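Notes to self after the Tuesday call (sharing in case useful).
The group wants a holo model before anyone commits to mutagenesis around the pocket. I volunteered. Ligand is 2-deoxy-2-amino glucitol-6-phosphate. Logging inputs and output together so the record is complete.
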Amino acid sequence: YVVDKGNHRHFMEKEIYEQPEVISHALSHYVDFAENTISTNAAAIDFKAASGLAISACGTAYLAGLVGKYWFERYARLPVEIDVASEFRYREMPLSPSQAALFISQSGETADTLASLRYCRENGLKIGAVVNVRESTIARESDAIFPIMAGPEIGVASTKAFTCQLAVLASLAIGAGKARGTVSADEERALVRHLAEMPRIMSRVLNLIQPQMESLSRELSKCKDVLYLGRGTSFPLAMEGALKLKEISYIHAEGYAAGELKHGPIALIDENMPVIVIAPFDRFFEKTVSNMQEVAARGGRIIFITDEAGAAASKLPTMATIILPVVDEIIAPMIFSLPIQLLAYHTAVFMGTDVDQPRNLAKSVTVE
Ligand code: AGP
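Result:
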């Protein structure tokens, strides 16, 4: 890897556009494309015998873990305990050596994540590290290293590391499901085929949505607050969208589970706060649309991130609708990450902030 910006204005932009390529690298490490099977080499972690999985991480890596929780529970029927590392390390939660543990960290040096790892080790759990930097402390102290193969990530706001973490977690969850007999050989092949389509779809989507993201960001840059909503795996994505926007544009944003809307945040809805609704046409779609209706009824301005089927199914008025291709549920979080990243990026560029080095932030937080 040559670490320069190439033709891009910022490392973050370069890293966003690198995703089709690096996701391909990540997948080739976990997928046998000739057989359409998962080959994770995870001998050190016995997902088959595990009674549960503990996951911990910080920031964006934590949000990747949260998507992973949905996958491990759904595909491998493995109960997942997940928390941000700064809470995980002090909660004194009872853990059993029959559980496995995964720590997700781009840098592999995050202090709280490392402390959580050591807590699990003291409790006799086998440790897996989902890291970008293979020579890192977290990788060194683990029983199994699951590299995300994203290449150096320079932008403080994590983009390609997030989608590569997701690709690896999806592969591990399918692999765990296979080992536990909850994913059949046919299902495995079908899921792997969907994973294999991902790089091509990502390239297409990046080209497709770029102009719309740029013009939309002008609108966003005028706002003081933005609310992101999603259900299922789109809920962690909503939080990731809000985190990205906060980090680089300094606009206040919150990510909420769409179903929580009426338990508080609905009070914020007015014509000044855009609500970004992330809703692929999946089994949660109708529910999310009914939350969207509640926003529309109160004069809220909706930015609807959906797919072709979702756009056809909803007739609600929106400020903008971003239409992605219909993709399988297993790859939707990675594909839907792209508009979220580009929206934050262009908003920050438009506002003239220091995109790669936002104020007050460090790439790797090695102190508590
Ligand atoms: C994401 O955009 C962040 N800057 C931040 O939340 C980051 O993901 C977090 O600090 C974790 O870092 P790590 O992956 O290197 O452990």
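Two things stood out.
The CA atoms of residues 109 and 137 lie 6 Å apart.
The chain is about 45% helix and 15% strand.
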